Every structure is written in C-alpha cells, then in structure tokens.
Prior knowledge:
The protein has a seven-stranded mixed beta sheet with strand order 1-4-3-2-6-5-7, with no helix packed on it. The protein contains two helices and seven strands; from the N terminus they run H-E-E-E-E-E-E-E-H. The chain folds into two domains: 1-33; 38-141, no CATH class. The model has no long low-confidence stretch (mean pLDDT 84). It has helices spanning 2-29, 135-147, and strands at residues 38-44, 55-58, 61-71, 78-84, 95-100, 107-112, 128-130. It comes from Paramylibacter kogurei. Pfam families: MlaD. The chain crosses the membrane at residues 12-31.
Amino acid sequence: MAHNLTETAVGAVVVAAAAGFLIFASSSVGFSTKSGGYELNASFRSADGVAVGTDVRMAGVKVGTVTALALDPESFRANMQFSMRDDLKIPEDSGVQISQEGLLGGTFVEVVPGGSEFAMEQGGEFIDTQGSVSLISLLLKFVAGSEQ
C-alpha cells in the first residue's frame, strides 16, 4: 500500500512539473490567450528567414508578431502582416527591416521609428522597407571582388 502511494505522489509531481514547463514554454515563445493589438502591413523584395510567428522588435524589445506572409503574384514581393501592441503608436514615417541576431542567430523584423507626429492606424502600410540580406551572397561578392 505504501509503495502505491509513493508511486502516485511521484507521478503527480512529474505531471505538475510537465505542466509547469508547458506554461513556461508557451509564455516564452509568445503564445498568449490575450488578443489585441493592431495589424500593420509591409512589402519586401526578400523575406528570407521570416515566418508566421517571427518576432517584431523595436530597440531590441518585442513589440509584435508576424501574423501572415504571402507572395504577391503581380509584383513578386513578399507581403507581410504583423500585429503590434496597442499601447505603441508607431509614427507613420517609420521604416521596417528584416534583421538577424548575429551570424548564426535567428531572424526578426525590426521597426525603425520615424519622427512624424502622426501615428499609423489599423491596416497601415510601411513604405520604407528593407528586405533580408543573404550572408552567402555577400561573402561570394567579397571573394569575387578580391580576385579582380
């Protein structure tokens, strides 16, 4: 009888620990039951490394998440939609670029704030965009340039 009670207690501790890890993982990844924020759009020549769920950051702080990414069949550009925090009023002349955390780091979307006194509204679109830069192409250009 004591053996069964011990197994039950250990099993309960394992289940509680697993639930704790799941809650921690979902909060650190950005899953959340709260909704809100407003949607903004941008169009990029290249969106390499970006997927739905990618962080949108400003000054290194997460301020949103990529919610949709699709190819425009007419312009052949990557159209991106992302959700921004409600408490941030992004100036309408702000820019957005795809950045990397380092040589081996992940990719994120960076908002570069402008100086306008007018804020972007729901569904607004960034005009100033800069797509991702391939490090392989840069290295190939550097190697090719040094041989000439």
